[in-house]
Design goal:
35% helix
Length: 251
């Protein structure tokens, strides 16, 4: 398979290594300093482009790839609120293909399935209050993480007593602390921590007077995310439309 990389940071370089090790060809690498290469024959020859950039750049990158009918796999977050409907329409009616996930880790996919099932069970036990904590490296700018938001929304869809999430305590990279976990009964507080070079930790707790149940996913490195992105590209090669990890992983 011919792959184009959009974004050549730590994730892009790791994706490149894994893609090559699985027998794929990297035909184009686009970063901030060569945006004109979106219109190059090399980029247009790609079967799939794998995109990991910033929230403000992602949507524009999709449009540039779709212009050449290149399918896109993207792990960028933060664009859905403003551009989600446009992207859905382009995939449903315009013949374009986007595989999007807030997290491509196989472990997170399994964790997400467990989270959904646990929320279904806990819907019948209102004495348990749910809360979330996500921890990432100090370079991550968005908070809560896209993965935490996805996990929270999966809970809200299954827990009748919750109808939304809000930012909880924010423990910033400079050591300052803002926000509060004291939120309305119908909201889920997501606490965010930024420290060191943590690839990503997500914990969901159900607490009652009697006991507490906690599930946690702790990423050891970015390798799991990169492998998942390449697996998604392999899946996307032969599928069309707006795709997600629920299409790739049948739990």
């Amino acid at each position: 398979m011919k792959i184009a990389l959009i974004g050549y940071g730590k994730m892009g370089k790791m994706i490149e290594q894994i893609a090559l090790s699985r027998g794929h060809e990297i035909v184009s690498i686009i970063d901030l300093d060569n945006q004109e290469d979106f219109d190059s024959p090399a980029f247009a020859s790609a079967d799939v482009a794998i995109e990991f950039t910033a929230p403000q750049a992602a949507y524009g990158n999709y449009l540039r790839a779709f212009k050449h009918h290149v399918k896109v796999v993207s792990g960028s977050t933060g664009w859905m609120k403003d551009h989600g409907e446009d992207v859905k329409k382009m995939c449903a009616e315009g013949g374009q293909t986007l595989f999007w996930a807030s997290n491509f880790s196989v472990g997170v996919a399994i964790f997400s399935a467990i989270n959904k099932k646990l929320a279904e069970i806990m819907n019948g036990f209102p004495q348990y209050q749910v809360s979330m904590v996500e921890t990432h490296h100090i370079h991550k700018l968005d908070a809560p993480s896209g993965t935490a938001i996805t996990l929270a929304e999966d809970i809200i869809d299954r827990l009748d007593r919750k109808d939304g999430w809000v930012k909880g305590v924010q423990r910033h990279a400079d050591g300052t602390i803002t926000g509060s976990n004291d939120v309305a009964e119908d909201k889920i507080a997501i606490e965010s921590i930024r420290r060191d070079e943590v690839p990503g930790i997500h914990s969901i707790s159900y607490d009652s007077e009697a006991d507490q149940i906690t599930i946690t996913h702790d990423a050891h490195s970015r390798k799991g995310f990169a492998l998942g992105a390449v697996l998604a590209a392999e899946y996307t090669l032969n599928h069309q439309g707006l795709l997600t990890t629920s299409d790739l992983f049948k739990f």
